[in-house]
Amino acid sequence: MTDITEFKAKDGSKVYLSPILDLFNNEIVSYNLSYSPNWAQVEDMLMQAVKGLNKACGVILHSDQGWQYQMVAYRQILAEHGIIQSMSRKGNCLDNAAMESFFGRLKTECFYGREFNSREEIVDAVRDYLDYYNHRRIQLKLKGLSPIQYRKQSFK
């Protein structure tokens, strides 16, 4: 599942996060941080995700109907790697609820009560949080394990 969210620094500058969330174990399997929402950001995030992906594994990648996900180039990358595209119904944010929930957690746990003076500070904070989230942040629905611990245990 994928989407893009925005963060704003005290100086007014912005940072955009484009991650892919694996719904099996809630792991962020790839992401890109950019100072503007653009195709290169989404392409980089997608190419990170498809490295080493087994075409036969039946991956479905869900998104909203954002312009990035409607581009021919986006659809071509998915097709070349055997990924099935899924998109939310028009005007229905509930179809992307898991991603919005992740963004809410990220903003609460990483940003609540803190001020970031520049976009560079935001980039550092988000990178640190995503590392923490994937490797050390336990989740009850993952039997008290972090996303990566859960994946490793599941495939033993």
Automatic annotation (TrEMBL):
Domain Integrase catalytic: 1-155
An example molecular function term from Gene Ontology annotations: nucleic acid binding
SUPFAM superfamilies: Ribonuclease H-like
Swiss-Prot/TrEMBL GO biological process terms: DNA integration
NCBIfam families listed in its UniProt record: transpos_IS3
Protein known as: Transposase
